[in-house]
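User: Quick one: structure for sequence A, then sequence B.

Assistant: Sequence A:
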Amino acid sequence: MRPRRTLKPLLGGCLLALAASGLTGCSGGGAGGTDTLTWFINPDGGGSSPTGGGQAQLAAECSQASGGAYTIRVELLPNEASDQRQQLIRRLAAHDSGVDIMSLDPVVVPEFAEAGYLVDVPEQYTADFTQDRVQGSLDASQWDGRLVAAPFWSNTQLLWYRKSVAAAAGLDMTQPVTFDRLIEAAQATGTDIAVQAKRYEGYTVFVNALVAGAGGSIVQNEGASAEDTQLGLDSPQGQRAAEIIRELASSGAVGPALSSMNETTSLNMFQDEATSGFMLNWMYVYAAMKENNLSFLDDIGWTTYPRVDADKEAAPPFGGIELGVNTASRNKDESWQAISCITSAEHQKAYMIGTGNAASRSSVFDDPQIQEQFPMADVFRESLNNAVQRPRTAYYGDLSTAIQRTWSPPEQVDPATTPAESTELIMKVLRGEALL
């Protein structure tokens, strides 16, 4: 096993770190511990509500079900994944025992595990957390051959489309479709393709899906040290990814502001009846379109992520949340008990219905209520089982930021130069020769 990488706190000392983050308390309770567990949750439908939506409800239900063994208190993390990471790092680096359970974006799992901040899942919970799980969630919960988190909820992107547009373009959506064919269809019908290409994390998701869909990988030796990291961007697969982005940017089918497109603006574009054609986006958009009383909801179809090339399988991106336990927690046993309750099949179903965030348990997708509320459940599960992780490295933050910088704006991406330029910048940053 490799020696664990230690992350330096952004501010020295627990009190300074917490003061800077606007939080209070460096302890989970008295010297003898406490039956109160603190679960740091990401916003999941509660909006600005301090209760945080669905996860807070699960916390209350599992607290009651424990029969007094523990009580779960929730702390709401910021909206953005990068801000969530920063706030947690401050506490973890300060060995704050006031953090017990954490809702983790999949990309921080390797980083936190490598630094020794995550407790390995105890053996008695391994079967519970690995059986009946979609493959994407299983992959995201492991690092260095160890199960370091529990799958909670899962996410992936589908290709959403107007049935009438696809028919007019002669597309058979029961068969795999390529990006090239989508571009041709949008051009022929005068409609748009909504994707995410703003300079933010969602753009890295898109670039990674294209590289993987071309048969490559951005990081070729997961787990390597920073200076030994081998990248696969400056390759035929990376060049093919850049080619797709250039084709989209110059196609006239992505609207006038590709470089400002995120998930929300993509959804807004797709909801414009005059130009709506195709969209790459996460599962939440279906509930959003229903809530918005979209006039052409019956004309909306869905299928798996587009292929880069017809002879290669698609590489749909994986997202979601894993649950980890802080090594500084004084309540590790109770935390794992709570996580087992939180991720039960019953609670996975309730959470999916309540928030629209998909279960990590495969069997939940077969439930009649789930099938009724989410008619794309089977396609979504298929995509989750084939989903590709973003680069799994302890240095993901630097890598993602460098990709966003060198592949932006998308209108200037050049297959001949962009993959090489991004490789050079990433390696300089990892070697300490450049700053982002």
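Sequence B:
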Amino acid sequence: MPDSQQARLDALFHALSDGSRRRMIDQLSQGPASVSELARPLELAMPSVVKHLAVLERGGLVNSEKQGRVRTFQLVPGALAQVETWAAERERTWRRRFDRLEAFLAASDGGGREGSA
């Protein structure tokens, strides 16, 4: 994986590593929301909410738009695709390994477990 892709994946996982940020993502999955709307269900001070939102933005999960004094955030479509791809690749690797292990065990066992009770 190229360094730029690795850095993006690191930023995505870092952004997803905090429960408050995941709650914000869940809320934004319902539609755009202002900073104060995102802060309302969390028991965090506004400066903490703003810092969390900056992490989500650096991670490429959300983007924002400012109209007057109100900053509104929304999810970036397809932002989790890289995480999904990464996880799917690991799953395929482990499935192949387990399939090979299963085949090895079946071959070394003669295909069955005769004599076991």
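The chain has a mean pLDDT of 89. The chain is about 60% helix and 10% strand.

User: Thanks, that's what I needed.
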